[in-house]
Design goal:
This protein is an alpha/beta fold. Helix content is 41%, strand content 14%. The protein contains 14 helices and 13 strands. It has helices spanning 7-10, 16-26, 43-54, 67-81, 96-108, 123-131, 150-156, 179-191, 248-262, 267-279, 282-306, 331-342, 370-380, 383-386; strands at residues 30-31, 91-94, 114-119, 135-140, 161-167, 195-199, 224-229, 242-245, 310-311, 318-322, 344-345, 347-348, 361-365. The strands form 3 sheets. A 7-stranded mixed beta sheet has the order 2-8-7-6-5-3-4, with helices on both faces. Strands 9-10-13-12 form a 4-stranded antiparallel beta sheet. It has a two-stranded parallel ribbon with strand order 1-11. Strand 5, helix 8 and strand 6 (195-199) form a beta-alpha-beta unit. Helix 3 (43-54) packs across helix 10. It binds pyridoxal-5'-phosphate (PLP). Residues 35, 96-98, 122, 167, 171, 199, 201, 229, 231, 237, 242 line the site of pyridoxal-5'-phosphate. Pyridoxal-5'-phosphate binds next to helix 5.
Amino acid sequence: MPLSLSRRAARTVQSEIRAMSIACEKVKGINLAQGVCDTEVPAPVREGAKQAIDHGINSYTRAEGLAPIRQAIAEKMRRFNGVECDHETEVIVNSGSTGAFYAVCLALLNPGDEVILFEPYYGYHLNTLVAVEAVPLYVTLRAPDWTFNREDLERTVTLRTRAIMLNSPSNPSGKVFTREELEWIANFAKRHDLFVFTDEIYEYFIFEGRHISMATLPGMRERTITMSGYSKTFSITGWRIGYTVCDRRWAQGISYFHDLIYVCAPAPLQIGVAEGIRQLPESFYEEIGKEFIQKRDLLCNTLHEIGLTPSVPNGAYYVLADASILSGTTSREKAMCLLNETGVATVAGSAFYHGNGGENLIRFCFAKTDAELAEACRRLKALPEKLPSEIPSGARDHYR
Ligand SMILES: Cc1ncc(COP(=O)(O)O)c(C=O)c1O
């Protein structure tokens, strides 16, 4: 046998988001492609980590994470999410929620097991499933509200389906599943005996109402694997602190695989996050919603004005916009057209669909400082002058 990559590696491609960030760098553009939160890290989080380093918390930790952060997460789960959990046996600190999902998949899925994924999906969810040789089954959310057809779910599920993936608030659509939708999915999961893998990383980025955790719905505690983390909430994407909360029956296996791949999340940074959870007042979290609503409105109003009609999100910090007016036949060409004309980088909609459902969409991220977002909007406003005056018929109507 000649030397070669594994079949698994041969299937992987460079992430669309990373490719766009590189293209953006080349033209010194403004990167609204990547979900990197440029806002300030709260002081208790920074100070907590610095003090932990100075006090010698620099070694491997227990596979499940240090006690102070597990206790802080369990307390926060009770207070904010309404989920009771035992910090000793039902909370695992992970290398980001990305590390959480990989360990969850290794512990709970066999090769060939099917997992239902709503599309537009978050690429890492799909690629993680593919990496563990699970089989994704797609159910498409329909714009502009990103609702799903219940019959589509019933048609999709088979005897080999083991889980359904939920991400609310969602990347890239910004959809926040309603209580009624969550209840329907909960009953569906119970009827077909499925796990629900729920990625709640944007739980504090909600512009109306309050976050609902799937694990709080009747009968869902034992089959729900809740994953989240502090990358977004504390603007620490590079720290890699996430967590899993689930029934103790699953926690041990998840912790085993997390240990095998990552050993543990960075020790002093676990303490920084624990201090943040312990010290920051409720108002800190309420401010996130208020701050991001302003960013959302600034970007969405600009997009409306220039004819890139947005689907206004209810949560998270992304906007999918109708890219019909941009030249190009694929969403990648359209995203490149926008980058070339305005210097603003976005992600091609095709990154979020398995078929061609995203070819008329581009995704903007508004987790940027106010100054940077204002500059991006100023540049975007120049778009209409740069495009041919003839706008393709049907453009601007996509979401009406
Ligand atoms: C839906 C979703 N889940 C998880 C992540 C990554 O989270 P973490 O930094 O905790 O791995 C992201 C980042 O963009 C995301 O959008």
